[in-house]
Amino acid sequence: MKINVGNEEVELDSEILNFNEASLNEFLTKDAGYYSYFHSKMIDAQYILTQHENALEATYSAKFREYKENGATDKMSEAMAKSDQDVVVIKEKVRNAKRCKDYLWGFLKSLDKAHENALNLGYNVRKEMNVFQNQHVKSLEDILN
């Protein structure tokens, strides 16, 4: 999946979340770099969202004031400001920025879970290797005795 963070296209490739016993070391080696990259993109997305929210608030307030100065009641000024085309366009930008930030947040959560699963797999592999190694040593002792 590709999302746009500002003018940059970011690919949320779920393949980087996949690993197995053979690719475990490679996954753990690259995991921190991926996390750092996507975390920085989430910070960028949060910044963009904040900019759009500030623009929405400023535009809405200006439109409300404009309608109020032209003689509309508070309720009418509010309704007109909310439906003003400039405000509607910025609201859509806010929705898109929130969506982008939420996708990045979810991807970071997936990276966290994949990292946790990788550590568990590594632990289990080490335990299995230890069991096999001990069985091998015991069978050699049995042969020698």
Provide structural commentary:
Helices cover 80% and strands 6% of the residues. It is mainly alpha-helical. Strands 1-2 form a two-stranded antiparallel ribbon. α1 crosses α2 (74-83) and α1 (24-69) packs antiparallel against α3. The longest helix has 60 residues, at 85-144. It starts with a strand and ends with a helix.
Question: Can you summarize this structure?
Answer:
This protein is mainly α. It has helices at residues 24-69, 74-83, 85-144, and strands at 2-5, 8-11.
Low-confidence stretches: none
Mean pLDDT: 91
Q: Categorize the overall geometry.
A: rod-shaped
- Give the tally of β-strands: 2
Order of helices and strands: EEHHH
Biggest sheet overview: 2 strands, antiparallel
Q: List the total number of helices.
A: 3
Query: Structural class of the helices, strands and pairings?
Result: mainly alpha
> What does the oligomeric state look like here?
single chain
The side-by-side strand order for the widest beta sheet comes to 1-2
State the end-to-end distance.
Answer: 62 Å
Radius of gyration over alpha carbons?
27 Å
Helix content: over 70%
**Approximately how much beta-strand content do the residues carry?**
5-15%
Features:
single chain; 145 residues; mainly alpha; two-stranded antiparallel ribbon; 3 helices; 2 strands; 80% helix
